[in-house]
């Protein structure tokens, strides 16, 4: 599964969606015109007037298109905050990252393991408390700013490996950019459905004023309202057709991806079987469920009479693909909540730690690793979280101390720089200052490979900050970064990742438009980033640094014409930061080539240290390309 | 025809404006409700620490039964008050009640610690020191989550009071939210230390 190819395919699907939407709007406009012409204008023109009347058509068409367009634009605008908007729409409650409630804690543990295994920032998790059915969803404009939701039924009724199957399915939606397409669907289809709402409103308000009846026109307006409802129904029909056409195939793909992640097809199959056997199945009772029906793990609405309108493939088909021995009958499951005691996950022997060793890395491998998760990664992530010092794990999950952990991650190894940074820390207040010192003490014994996963782990807690707290946090992190102009590239990329993943939560400007920049348009920025990378990987020898840079340039081929190696002075932190931000808008193929060039840069000296590998992972993360962690002893 | 089109479009725009203001307020309300849930998590930890604390102190402060019982009583009252508020943080009265109960608990704890100064054996006790340290750490975390909650409440209240949202906020059931401030009891009784 080529991550970049799936990103492009998702973009093509979005284009197809908009084309289908335009067609549907055309159909609706024609129907509204018919209704107006037959019902309202026959009293003025008489039934013998010309059928096609441009003077009537223009205003009708204008108003209808305006209403649909405005509704759609409004809905897309209201979804701009992505994860939070969906949570509000569905009435979901956020799970605190430091929760101690056993079912919630187990769910968060599963999400953390799978997210770290994929190299994704840990998404926020919400729960639909009032839904006894078993269902889940994932939504978000970017992998770094996504939200995962489950129903109460999921928490109460699923075993741990079934939960893992479901979460794997949802995470694959995030990795495949389906989560983004889903949000587009909600926005675009809202316009089609709004006509029906207007019809209802007209009928209701006409019904109230039944006393006054105009001459002859009294019957026409309620009829018009009724017609609008019918037309609105047509709009809804088109909408569901579009949704199901796009949604069904991706569900099979997500099921397959989940099996790939967990190596356990039975976990997911058991979850689906439970849905089949339960009384409420996967039904979502919330009236807003229709809007988001394509988001869910399984069908959230009553089974449609027309299978083409269903947003999900039939349950039996999905189970049979996972478990060929399935007989087709569901065992009835008890709808009451039952939470069996949690059986501990087997943690493999903690023999090989990623100490300051060497990691093997093939030439093009990092681009090929993006978005791929293997069961070994999940095992590694589970072991990693379990072997973290307890103090760090708690600090990462606690909203009050997560900022301190981040500050500790940004502290430089060089004692002179550290002195300046400590002074900058004092501005954060005594509590955070003390916590940072404590966290730094524990961090000193952690390997380099732990830094990026710790940041990913801490993100849900950081999202709980308030806006003023976030502003103060940004000021301190900025001060820590610029404490010395000779900043480590890794710390800079960490900060970029922070801003990129947390900015949308706190209302920062976030372009949710599709990435459109070509590599050939961004050569300056590419040159800057590769130069900085060359400096970082060249172990301070100018010859080695230049060689790394040249290796990277070879891979860029024709586009490399105008790129030159910049000296260290030309690569101050702000410049690199801006370059990275600009490069995040590259088209998927552009990002792929950039990452391949970056890899070549790192392997130029035939030796890739753990630090360099993590640097590559961090750069990929700032480009919204999640890379699974490197396992010890991987082959070159 | 044209004035009709313009009027219709204008009407549609106004409807969208109102809808977006409404949804905005809903979003801000959810945000401060979520922030209160975090306060609840921290305070629960505090309430879990206190019985252990009192048990340890009981062994040494044999003659301060009243004070210790007052702490337990205040802790139970605060626990249920905060639980009620957590169920619906949009209810101003419940939040105010939780604040008052928390303030009373802080006062009772303060009294207990003041008395404990007179018991050097207690101060030397390892368990006591550990519990006190955890209590302090929890209080710092409460302060952080309280600040986040108050920020969210300020944002919500400001949005609610702005024109034109102020016109219909009340009609749609958006009540003003209460800030969460720990108020220590103003008058303190003279601390009675017994010398028996």
Structure commentary:
The complex is a heterodimer of chains A (636) and B (196). With 636 residues, chain A is an all-alpha fold. Chain A is built from 25 helices and four strands. Chain A has a four-stranded mixed sheet with strand order 1-2-4-3, sandwiched between helices. In chain A, a hairpin with a 5-residue loop joins strand 3 and strand 4 (146-151). Chain B is mainly alpha-helical. Chain B has a single domain (31-188), classed as de novo design (two linked rop proteins) (Up-down Bundle), CATH 1.20.1440.20. Helix content of chain B is 78%, strand content 0%. Chain B contains six helices and no strands. The longest helix of chain B has 59 residues, at 2-60. The model of chain B is unreliable at 185-196 (pLDDT under 50). Classes of the chains: A mainly alpha (636), B mainly alpha (196). The interface between A and B is medium-sized, with 34 and 33 residues.
Q: Helices, strands, pairings?
A:
The complex is a heterodimer of chains A (636) and B (196).
Chain A (H helix, E strand, L loop, with lengths): L2 H38 L1 H4 L8 H25 L4 H8 L2 E2 L7 H17 L5 E5 L7 E5 L5 E6 H6 L2 H16 L2 H31 L11 H43 L2 H13 L37 H8 L42 H5 L5 H13 L2 H8 L4 H9 L4 H11 L4 H14 L7 H12 L4 H15 L7 H14 L20 H15 L4 H15 L16 H11 L4 H16 L6 H13 L14
Parallel strand pairs in A: 2-4
Antiparallel strand pairs in A: 1-2, 3-4
Helix pairs in contact in A: 1-3, 1-8, 1-9, 1-24, 3-8, 5-7, 5-13, 7-9, 7-10, 8-9, 10-11, 14-15, 14-18, 15-17, 15-18, 15-19, 16-19, 18-20, 19-20, 20-23, 20-25, 21-22, 21-23, 21-24, 22-24, 24-25
Chain B lengths: L1 H59 L4 H23 L4 H25 L3 H5 L1 H36 L3 H5 L27
Helix pairs in contact in B: 1-2, 1-5, 2-3
């Amino acid at each position: 599964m080529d991550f970049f190819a799936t990103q492009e395919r998702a973009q093509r699907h979005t284009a197809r969606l908009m084309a289908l939407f335009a067609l549907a709007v055309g159909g609706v406009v024609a129907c509204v015109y018919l209704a107006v012409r037959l019902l309202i204008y026959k009293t003025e023109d008489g039934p013998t007037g010309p059928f096609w009347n441009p003077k009537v058509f223009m205003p009708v068409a204008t108003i209808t298109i305006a209403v649909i367009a405005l509704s759609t634009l409004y809905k897309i605008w209201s979804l701009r905050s992505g994860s939070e908007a969906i949570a509000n729409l569905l009435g979901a409650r956020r799970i605190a990252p430091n929760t101690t409630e056993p079912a919630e804690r187990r769910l968060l543990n599963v999400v953390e393991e799978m997210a770290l295994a994929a190299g994704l920032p840990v998404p926020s998790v919400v729960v639909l408390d009032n839904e006894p059915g078993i269902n889940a969803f994932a939504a978000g404009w970017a992998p770094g700013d996504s939200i995962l939701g489950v129903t109460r039924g999921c928490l109460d009724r699923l075993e741990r490996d079934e939960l893992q199957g479901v979460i794997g399915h949802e995470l694959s939606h995030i990795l495949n950019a389906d989560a983004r397409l889903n949000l587009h669907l909600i926005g675009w289809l809202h316009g089609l459905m709004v006509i029906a709402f207007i019809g209802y409103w007209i009928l209701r308000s006409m019904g109230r004023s039944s006393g006054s009846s105009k001459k002859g026109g009294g019957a026409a307006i309620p009829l018009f309202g009724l017609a609008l409802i019918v037309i609105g129904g047509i709009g809804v029909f088109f909408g569901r057709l579009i949704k199901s056409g796009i949604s069904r195939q991706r569900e099979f793909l997500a099921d397959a991806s989940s099996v790939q992640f967990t190596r356990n097809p039975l976990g997911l199959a058991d979850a689906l079987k439970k849905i089949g056997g339960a009384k409420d199945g996967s039904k979502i009772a919330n009236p807003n469920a229709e809007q988001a029906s394509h988001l869910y793990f399984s069908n959230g609405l009553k089974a449609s009479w027309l299978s083409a309108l269903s947003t999900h493939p039939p349950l039996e088909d999905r189970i049979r693909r996972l478990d060929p021995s399935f007989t087709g009958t569901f065992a009835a499951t008890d709808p009451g909540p039952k939470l069996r005691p949690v059986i501990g996950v087997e943690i493999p022997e903690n023999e090989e730690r990623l100490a300051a060793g060497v990691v093997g890395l093939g030439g093009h491998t990092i681009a090929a690793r993006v978005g791929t998760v293997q069961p070994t990664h999940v095992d590694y992530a589970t072991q990693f979280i379990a072997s973290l010092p307890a103090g760090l794990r708690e600090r990462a999950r606690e909203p009050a101390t997560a900022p301190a952990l981040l500050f500790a991650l940004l502290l430089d190894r060089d004692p002179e720089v550290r002195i300046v940074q400590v002074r900058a820390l004092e501005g954060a207040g005594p509590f955070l200052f003390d916590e940072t010192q404590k966290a730094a003490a524990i961090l000193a014994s952690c390997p380099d490979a732990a830094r990026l996963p710790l940041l990913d782990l801490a993100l849900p807690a950081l999202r709980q900050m308030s806006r003023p707290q976030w502003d103060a946090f940004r000021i301190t992190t900025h001060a820590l970064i610029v404490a010395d102009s000779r900043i480590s590239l890794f710390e800079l990329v960490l900060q970029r990742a922070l801003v990129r993943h947390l900015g949308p939560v706190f209302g920062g400007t976030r372009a949710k438009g599709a990435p459109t920049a070509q590599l050939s348009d961004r050569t300056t920025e590419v040159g800057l980033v590769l130069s900085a990378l060359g400096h970082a990987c060249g172990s301070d020898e100018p010859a080695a640094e230049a060689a790394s840079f040249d290796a990277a340039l070879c891979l860029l081929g024709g586009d490399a014409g105008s790129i030159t190696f910049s000296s260290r002075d030309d690569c101050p932190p702000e410049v690199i930061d801006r370059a990275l931000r600009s490069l995040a808008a590259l088209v998927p193929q552009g990002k792929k080539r950039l990452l391949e060039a970056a890899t070549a840069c790192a392997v130029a000296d035939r030796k890739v240290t753990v630090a360099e590998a993590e640097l590559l992972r961090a750069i990929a993360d700032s480009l919204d390309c999640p890379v699974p962690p490197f396992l010890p002893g991987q082959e070159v | 025809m044209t004035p009709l089109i313009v009027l219709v479009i204008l009407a549609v725009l106004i409807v969208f404006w109102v809808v977006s203001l409404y949804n905005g307020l809903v979003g801000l309300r959810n945000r401060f409700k979520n922030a209160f849930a975090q306060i609840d998590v921290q305070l629960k930890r505090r309430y879990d620490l206190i019985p252990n604390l009192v048990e340890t102190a009981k062994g040494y402060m044999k003659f301060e039964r009243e004070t210790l019982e007052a702490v337990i009583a205040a802790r139970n009252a605060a626990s249920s008050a905060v639980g009620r508020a957590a169920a619906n943080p949009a209810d101003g009265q419940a939040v105010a009640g939780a604040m008052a109960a928390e303030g009373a608990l802080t006062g009772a704890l303060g009294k207990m610690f003041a008395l404990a100064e007179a018991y050097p054996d207690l101060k030397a006790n390892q368990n006591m020191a550990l519990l006190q340290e955890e209590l302090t750490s929890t209080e710092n975390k409460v302060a952080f989550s309280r600040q986040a909650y108050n920020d969210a409440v300020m944002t919500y209240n400001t949005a609610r009071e702005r024109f034109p949202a102020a016109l219909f906020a009340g009609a749609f059931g958006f009540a003003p939210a209460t800030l969460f401030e720990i108020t220590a009891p103003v008058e303190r009784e003279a601390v009675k230390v017994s010398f028996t």
